[in-house]
UniProtKB/TrEMBL annotation, chain A:
Residues in the signal sequence: 1-25
PROSITE patterns listed in its UniProt record: PROKAR_LIPOPROTEIN (PS51257)
Superkingdom: Bacteria
Keywords: Signal
InterPro entries, per database record: Bact_solute-bd_prot1
PANTHER family xrefs: ARABINOSE-BINDING PROTEIN-RELATED, DIACETYLCHITOBIOSE BINDING PROTEIN DASA
UniProt protein name: ABC transporter substrate-binding protein
From TrEMBL, chain B:
Family from the record: Belongs to the binding-protein-dependent transport system permease family.
UniProt keywords, alphabetically: Cell membrane, Membrane, Transmembrane, Transmembrane helix, Transport
Name the record gives this protein: Carbohydrate ABC transporter permease
Gene3D superfamilies recorded: MetI-like
Limits of the ABC transmembrane type-1 domain: 89-298
Ranges where the record places region Disordered: 1-25
Amino acid sequence: MTRKSLPRHATVASIAIVAVGIALSGCGASGSSSTNANGVTNLKMIMEPGPEADSMSKLVDAFNSGQGAKDKIHVEIDQLSRTDTFAKEAALMSTQSSDYDIYRTTSYLVAQHAPYLEPLTLNGDNYFKAPVESLQVDGKQYGIPLDPSVHLLYYRTDLIDQMLKDAPTYEKISQDVLGKKLEPKSPDQWTWDDYIASAAYFTKKYNPNSPTPYGTQLQAKNLLYNAMVWDDVLWGLGGNWLNSAGQPDLTSTAAQNAVNVYRTVYTKGLTAADSDQAEFPETEAALGSGNAAFAVQWNAGYAQLNDASKSPKTAGKIGIAPVPGGKTHVHALSLGVNKYGKHTSQAQEFIKYLDDPATMGSYVGDGGIASMPKALSTKTDPNTAALNKALSGGSFSEPALPKAFDVYTALANDLSAAWVGQGDVSSALAKANADVAKLAGK
Amino acid sequence: MTAPSSLTTRPTIEGRKGSRRRRPANRGPARWILSAPLLVFLALFVAFPIVYGVQSALTSKTLLDPTPTWVGLGNFGAVLTDAGFWHSALFTLLYTVVVTGFELAFGFGLALLFDKDFPGKKFLLSAVILPIMIAPALMGIMFRLLLNSNIGLLPGFLHSIGVDVPLLGAGTVVPMLMGLDVLQWTPFTFLLFHAALQSVPGELHEAAQLDRANYPRFVVSILIPLMVPTIFIAGFLRAIDAFRTFDTINVLTSGGPGDNTTTLSIYIYKILSAGNFGTASAAALIVALIMLPLVPVVVRRITRGAV
């Protein structure tokens, strides 16, 4: 009897198939949404780790044990990475994945995410206007507004009091730096010229008696979030990304002036020279260390500045005013329903649970920030009051272009060098204008 | 007396050919079985990504329009006509040349220093190689704190001795980034040179002393020529790594101000973050093509050294 062996190619193919099988067995999505034997639907939701997820976890626990138990829906939060949540979501969305039922979205990404999200029906009257509108695309709501972010002017009350009593020095410095004599004013009345003059007053280079080395801290790093801060100056000076005809408008006089505000602050040395690499944490450091007297900062910055254990130099001495010029960018973190999810109706039920002032009141109680005036007014600390005021009037959301995220990135890329005195302002704005035209399809 | 022929005679070509002919008959399946893990690995992690990357580069696929549309070489054209790409390519090239040069010079200098005996050598050796143990992204975060003018240790120290230099200011950020790369990766070249110096025969030192050659002359005329293969490998490895630098610079500057510190990797990452998958793939392939001609040169050099 002769021994019959497998043909060589068959052997190789078998080994290859087994190896590929083993390799691919680890590639599947773990624990995707499902319905168990008791008929309870398990919804999976994406969030980034941080205070928002902590507050939402408490809300989800309450839902799972109350409304969810009744409706046989159980929500589970999957916390991805603080920095890369949206990049990971982009990969999931591009493959039309059904792994998650509820996606994290936000005002500046919602237009990009909209093709993968189901429209929502919200009770719009319960919300501040700007956050709810910032999550609409072509008139449809794709995200429920949560945790709104605005900018506020945080200043040292003890130092500003001192400045208000020293008009002669202030007038001289404003004449030297701006070429015009200005009087010291309370921060809630500042224009951008007042901001520059006050920054000069608190800069040792211009005022040897200044208690701080620099007046302010710019956030001028090449970062899309810093473009949002600069937009405050642009809008405050009457500018916009687009003009009334919907055409790019970044070569306007307002845009020139807005770049020049940053450029003056940086090149005159009214902010630390490494402001060109500064963002949120650096601004906290500048104020908290006592190196700057005031700065435009995200509303999330107040807690640390007013915490005596973290910022002993500023705790109890932080005043809050609107951004000079009276306009602040607003965006809201949000949740949307995955159009390709397996349990869209249950996901809509959970969104409906969130779309309620009482639920959002609990969210605020758990440390979250609501986009509903009624829910937000349950907290009366000065920062929440200032946020409430900014959201009620003076806040704006940039045009909801499908490529808004790219526009912010392009603005930071094209203008951040001009902000810190490098290159020519007109050329930088012309480049930004061309990029906005391309991205907006104009 | 002559040595036995079996010890002195090399196998004939016929003999080697004969042995080669026999191997496939006996070892063919085993060869495939043993190679299978590698082949599967290469297919999954090299061939598939390359084919997928080429396919992506030839199509337009974005988050807004996820259905791939054939655009031929359009994405390549978009990248190659983008001034930002060329700016980042030039910056990357400058960065690579400068940091590799310094890392080779400092690494070699340190290796010469550690070739001598001195007190505390072992402790210092551990201290010197410490930076390569740190993840580049963590290095970026550490130096973001250390160099911060408000709370940073280094600006604080410099201020205390009367020196106020903005370490991450618009005018100093490029040399500072290069300095950080040199700080982190000089230990790598040092280790390669240190290992190579251990293999230099002691007789050469003695011969040089007999010929009254001083130490600098010994280094220039004997050690450096002997170290050329190591210098080549160290330079190549560092240049490849520096060319694709991402983590530290992205954490510290995000490529700014403007695109002054944008490397090619950051350039590609920004396109990808915006959800433009086709363009990002094209940019990545162009960068791979830039690097490709170096591979045969290095392989030839390495194999020549090995034979």
